[in-house]
Amino acid sequence: MNQPVAHGHDNFRYDPLLYNADLAPVPAARRDWNWFNMATVWMGMVHNVVAYEAAAGLMAVGFSALQCLYIIGTAYLALCVAMWFNARSGTRYGIPFCVIIRSSFGPRGAMIPIGLRAICAIFWFSVQAYAASQALNAILSILWPGWAHLDHVVAGQSIQMWLAMAMMWALHGVIGAHGVHRIRNFELYAGPLVLVVAGVASAWAIYVCHGVGPLFDQPSQLHGTTLWLKFGSAVTSIIGIWASYAVNIPDLSRFVRSQRDQVIGQAIGLPLTAILFTPMSIFITSATVVQFGYPIWNPVDILVRIDNTALTLVGGATIIIAALSVNVAGNIMPAAYDLLSIFPRQFDFNRGSKMVLFLGIGAVPWLWFDHPENIYMVLNVIASTLAPITGIMLADYYFIRRQVLQLNWLYVFSGPYHGRNGWRMSALASMLVTLFFLYGAQIFHMSALINSMSWFVGVALSGLIYVILNYRTRNA
Q: Which residue windows are transmembrane per the record (predicted)?
């Protein structure tokens, strides 16, 4: 192993495999995000195509508009609580998720949750960027008549879409390659703009339906036990959109100047904005039932169906801005941190963000836009996979560490967080047992109730096992 290098005022020697400038604690003087910055970043992330489609798709699978609102409210309340608590360590110590997770999993064991989180971030980047590519394709089809002739299929995609994807990937690269502060500045404008356009679209929905009343006239297709099991599963699916950020919210909160700012910013940016935005998608989808006779949950399909040039240009541009907004802060940034944590000598933030763009092609996002059931299936898998990591992080920071971390020891292969050869088996065992239980319940149909509440069960079970193991053993 390479010899550790000296760093810091106390001359503590950090290992180069665990430390670089991007992973170092952010000094208090550089933590310049206030509550408004945090709120606008969240506003930009909440207003995204997957969140829209997931909420709108609830009607396509049988829920009424009012039931959809209950589902959204329940999911975002649970998310808000988990993120408030998990963000505190980032704000207090100025360190990202990929460093904090070493406290519970050990410096080598941390590579497993970091890798899982990176895979989720790259997948979501790819899906969001593909949705933006669809919008760009619709815009170019209107502006350039010759674009429609580029319809030859290559590798499962038309040339139109391959070109649109290339342009969108390049645009993501330009915005994401300039670090966290460029991302913050972009979100100052993107988040509020998307909310304004979504409000205009909601006004269209109310106009089409001649008032708010008809938006809620579509009856539920689900009843009895099926309704409640589907309700729980839908809540878990909505949580799945943000389950990854329940894990790595410290990547953002490390730049916030105080706990008060991160709490207020998240309260405004996440639940409040989500409660405003997601009903808009439900209203719009309900209006498509009135206008066209069936629910249309993909916003690009709505633009194409309405066939209005001005609306397609404005709506398509908004979808693109929304995708850029969530991707640069919610997917590219955390995935870049994860990659440079796994390969600290090969990557810095800029190289990591470029690698995210490259790996995103491998997620083949066009396979996930056929039916709303596909999105819910993926969301449930993500929620189930990341729930144990959330539970372990919360249990470690609040019950085992009592909110006190020794920063220097998080950057070396020794000390209180090292475990056995860099692996803390209590965390690994808690995660594996919980995942075995959750996926076993799904594969063998052990309990419909467990399957419908997989995220909640995963957080609680993994946290409980982790606390028990660490109270019973000295060297976890």
A: 68-87, 122-147, 159-177, 189-207, 227-247, 268-294, 314-340, 352-369, 375-400, 421-441, 453-471
DSSP designation for 270: I
pLDDT digits (tens, 9 = 90+) for 167-215: 999 988 887 665 555 555 565 566 666 767 777 777 877 777 776 655 5
Strands (E) in 239-289, as ranges, are: none
Contacts of 473 (CB under 8 A, 6+ apart): 426
**pTM for this prediction:** 0.84
Axis-axis angle for helices 159-176, 309-327 (nearest 10): 50
Residue 273: how many CB atoms within 10 A of its CB?
24
Round to whole Å and give the CA distance between 190 and 193: 5
**Residues in the chain, overall count:** 476
Q: What residues does each domain of the chain span?
A: 32-371
| 70-97 burial: b if 16+ Cβ within 10 Å, else e | ebbbbbbebbbebbbbbbbbbbbbbbbb
The 3-state DSSP class for residue 256 equals strand
For residue range 90-111, list pLDDT tens digits in order: 999 999 999 999 999 999 999 9
Inter-helix orientation angle 111-143/159-176, to 10°: 120
User: 19 by DSSP, 3-state: which?
Assistant: coil
User: Which SS3 state, helix, strand or coil, does residue 6 take?
Assistant: strand
Domain 32-371 has CATH 1.10.3120.10: no
